[in-house]
Amino acid sequence: MTTRLPLARLIAAEARLFLREPAAVFFAVFLPVALLLALGATIPGFREPVPALGGNRVVDVQLPAMMTLLTVVTLALSTLPTALVVYRERGVLRRMSTTPVRPGTLLAAQLVIYFAVSVVSVALILVLGNAVLGVPYPRALGAFAGSYLLGALTLFALGLWLAAVAPNSRVVQGAGSAAMFPLLFFAGMWLPRRLMPEVLRRISDLTPTGALGQLFTDAFAGHPPEAFHLAVAAGWAVAAGLAAARMFRWE
Fold first, then answer.
1. SS3 helix, strand, coil % of the chain, rounded to 5?
2. I need a labelling partner for 74 at 20 to 30 A (CA). Which of 68, 97, 112, 114 fits?
């Protein structure tokens, strides 16, 4: 009970702090949902069957997969590392190391909150996409859930590594934003992976977001996950997690 109570209190306190940041709530929760609904409703081609997608519509497969990825990338590479580095700069983590509530407890609370926020956002993507645009739920639901858990683990590990190496909050914000755009590009956010030149697609296959984007897309289309993409995502999770654990500084 003595360890659970501080964690529960920290989760509640950190959740209140997160909800007081309208920009974080907007970009992580509402922007992906709004983009799905707006693009799906206003671009006629997104609602037409595409042979390359097995006769599925872009709004049924590609678009919800990318919005799901956008949610986790935003939280993992922007919100989480910035919050941790700000706490380190302000001495919060150092002061906590002298109390019964260790800094690791705060880290656990942060991860719980951001994962829960990502789940809420993805649930809104699925439910509102289905209700407004008729987007079917992922046809391979089990594969989607497993890929999503792996994706969250991979990207949050990358976010922790970013927080470990960034010297201050200004650097971590810039680095997170700079990393997001190429990672989302290789995922297929602006140029679908199936349309990429062979060289770009091979590079994409080896990036964490490229592998995860393909896993999400396959799940929405009803295809089983490919072992190669699972291995790439898992490899990034292990490598980033070990690097973050080795390099993370509490003060």
1. 80, 0, 20
2. 97
- The Cα 100–Cα 3 span in angstroms is 9
Q: Name residue 76's amino acid.
A: A
Q: What is the mean pLDDT of residues 28-53?
A: 91
Task: State how far the Cα of 242 lies from the Cα of 129, in Å rounded to an integer.
Answer: 37
The token pair that represents 244 in the structure block: 């973050």
**pLDDT band, very low/low/confident/very high, at 3 (cuts 50, 70, 90):** very low
Bridge partner list, 57: 49
Task: Give pLDDT tens digits for 49-97.
Answer: 888 777 889 999 999 999 999 999 999 999 999 999 998 888 887 777 6
Residue 40: pLDDT band with limits 50, 70, 90: very high
Q: Which residues, 6 or more positions from 7, have their beta carbon under 8 angstroms from its beta carbon?
A: 105, 108, 109
Query: What is the pLDDT of the chain when averaged over all its residues?
Result: 90
3-state secondary structure labels for all residues of the chain = CCCHHHHHHHHHHHHHHHHCCHHHHHHHHHHHHHHHHHHHHHCHHHHCECHHHCCCECCCCHHHHHHHHHHHHHHHHHHHHHHHHHHHHCCHHHHHCCCCCCHHHHHHHHHHHHHHHHHHHHHHHHHHHHHHHCCCCCCCHHHHHHHHHHHHHHHHHHHHHHHHHCCCHHHHHHHHHHHHHHHHHHHCCCCCHHHCCHHHHHHHHHCHHHHHHHHHHHHHHCCCCCHHHHHHHHHHHHHHHHHHHHHCCCC
Query: What's the rounded Cα separation, in Å, for the pair 231 and 237?
Result: 10
pLDDT at residue 108 tops 50 = yes
